[in-house]
Amino acid sequence: MSIKIAPSILTADFSNLGALINKLESGGADDIHLDIMDGKFVPNLTFGPLIAASLREVTSFPLDVHLMVEAPERYFSAFAKAGVKSLTIHSETCQHLYRSVQLIKEMGLKAGVALNPATPLSVLEYIIQDLDLVLIMTVNPGWGGQEFIPAMNRKIRELREMLIDSGSSADLQVDGGINSRTIKAAVDCGANSLVIGSALLKEQDLTKAIKDYRSLAEEALVGSWWHRAYQGE
Ligand SMILES: O=C(CO)[C@H](O)[C@H](O)COP(=O)(O)O
Predict the structure, then answer these.
(1) Which of 65, 129, 201, 204 is deepest in the core (most CB within 10 A)?
(2) What's the predicted TM-score (pTM) here?
(3) What would the pLDDT profile of 164-202 be if each residue is shown by its tens digit?
(4) 175 is an active site residue
């Protein structure tokens, strides 16, 4: 199981997005995390498939889309056409979560499910083996720059136990408030895919910042309780 650094562009200067993406790519990030918000499921409003398609023109970097929208199925095909790698949907927004996951996979994309802080892990019990990624919201979704909710570390640990027990090598992604104070505990508990927004984008030297975050995370991974379960992969 490898560490993945997925910068979120939520707090970026949108007038200069192409240049930022190129810097993140050459700086060694693994994915770009795109936060799609509809002003309904979450109060904030961001952007849609057209921006993803424009970004696809300037980079071949994997685009990791986090849909914080109601009835997300309406947008699957537009994002697939835009050339994104993965779609992560919120369990709270889907009446038929399993069907939505299958639809994403039928389009040839990786499928992820995100859970708000108060949503129990039990919603994943019967679909966990079908997922490529599970995203634990470690803040209330809507804005960048919030504080990590400490109780989420126990949830991360319990989810990693579920993934190991079900033989899944899905990524366990954490999103919200990840910075140099919180990253080690999150990885130690079970996270391997780290969405980092404001803490990363405020840095002048993105290459160094990505390298430093990766080192912190890899150090925590090697010393973690769960690392051994994936050795030999
Ligand atoms: O999904 C999100 C908010 O809903 C963002 O991806 C998340 O908050 C990342 O930003 P930061 O690292 O600044 O917390």
Answers:
(1) 65
(2) 0.97
(3) 999 999 999 999 999 999 999 999 999 999 999 999 999
(4) yes
Encode pLDDT of 100-109 as tens digits: 999 999 999 9
Domain boundaries, the chain: 4-230
Q: What is the ipTM of this complex?
A: 0.97
Please tell me the CATH code under which domain 4-230 is placed.
Answer: 3.20.20.70
Q: Which residue in the list 31, 171, 175, 188 is annotated as catalytic?
A: 175
> Is there a binding annotation on residue 227?
no
